[in-house]
Write a structure and sequence with these properties.
The structure is a single chain. α5 links the parallel β5 and β6. α5 packs antiparallel against α6. This protein is 33% helix and 15% strand. It has a single domain, classed as Zn-dependent exopeptidases (Aminopeptidase, 3-Layer(aba) Sandwich), CATH 3.40.630.40. It is built from 6 helices and 7 strands, in the order ββαααβαββαββα. The chain is α/β, with parallel strands linked by helices. The radius of gyration is 18 Å and the shape is globular. The longest helix has 30 residues. A 7-stranded mixed β-sheet has the order 1-3-2-4-7-5-6. It starts with a strand and ends in a 5-residue tail after the last helix.
Length: 267
């Protein structure tokens, strides 16, 4: 349900890749109402294709190898970055932690509270627990943890998006008021400066921090990198293009900058 790739003992950096997989469990596939063709099309729209490849190349090239936590299952099983309860605004369009609607508002699975609880218990909770343990381990080893969420998004808004009217820059930087210090945001701006225009919290905002540490542990920093898909791949679910190499280099530069900064006291 998840895969962790160890990094250097002295690295505080965690590359988080939550939406790169197209794999469904048999139980999750059984609850999805789409036929195979429609499901493949939905996966094309909703999978952050090749973000695992981008993160992997950046980790391999970094001066100090970061840690990587990757979701091995599709977000159509559970979405580990959603709140699992009424706090989640995406429940309004059928996309809480367990999706019941597709990217185009069609029925994905029936409303079944029992099955939802089963999916959350089997996948959401273990995923969150494992990620929290990884953050705790980085805090214990280095005194800090720096989470970099690696995402992508389509060049054209999909109907499910709640903030579709916002700008769609080549790279969107998602921040959190408690966990994104100015030095981290500036490091990302410098690293991705050659990837055309950058945007802040548009069309997506925020970043992933374990609830144990959210708004509580100042030593945990986080930033989301949302890469517009036409920058590095053929949309909606096609092969990577030559642009992927430039994106991977930019992420490598960010990891290197963050590793150096995180080793020093935050100003």
């Amino acid at each position: 349900m998840y895969a962790q790739t160890p990094g250097a003992d002295r690295s505080p950096v965690i590359l988080h890749v939550p939406h790169s997989s197209r794999t469904l469990t048999p139980a999750a596939r059984g609850s999805v109402l789409l036929d195979d063709t429609a499901l493949s099309r939905e996966l094309d729209h909703m999978t952050d294709a090749h973000t695992d490849l981008i993160a992997g190349r950046a980790a391999d090239a970094a001066a100090v190898t970061p840690w990587t936590h990757r979701n091995a299952l599709s977000r159509l099983v559970v979405d580990p970055e959603r709140f699992p309860d009424e706090r989640e605004e995406m429940r309004a369009v059928g996309m809480g932690a367990v999706y019941t609607r597709t990217s185009h508002g069609e029925r994905l699975r029936s409303d079944d509270p029992v099955h939802e609880r089963e999916l959350l218990a089997a996948h959401f909770v273990p995923y969150a627990d494992a990620f929290t343990r990884l953050v705790d381990a980085r805090l214990a080893a280095t005194g800090r943890a720096v989470i970099i969420d690696v995402h992508s998004y389509p060049s054209r808004a999909l109907p499910y998006e709640l903030h579709a009217a916002g700008a769609r820059p080549a790279v969107c930087l998602g921040t959190d008021e408690h966990h994104t210090p100015p030095w981290l945001l500036e490091a990302a701006r410098r690293a991705f400066t050659d990837c055309a225009e950058l945007g802040l919290n548009t069309p997506f905002a925020g970043c992933y921090v374990p609830l144990k540490h959210y708004a509580h542990t100042t030593e945990v920093s986080a930033l989301m990198i949302e890469i517009r898909r036409d920058l590095y791949m053929t949309e909606p679910g096609g092969a990577p293009t030559d642009g992927l190499a430039a994106v991977a280099r930019a992420l490598t530069a960010l990891v290197d900058a963050v590793t150096g900064q995180a080793a020093r006291p935050t100003p």
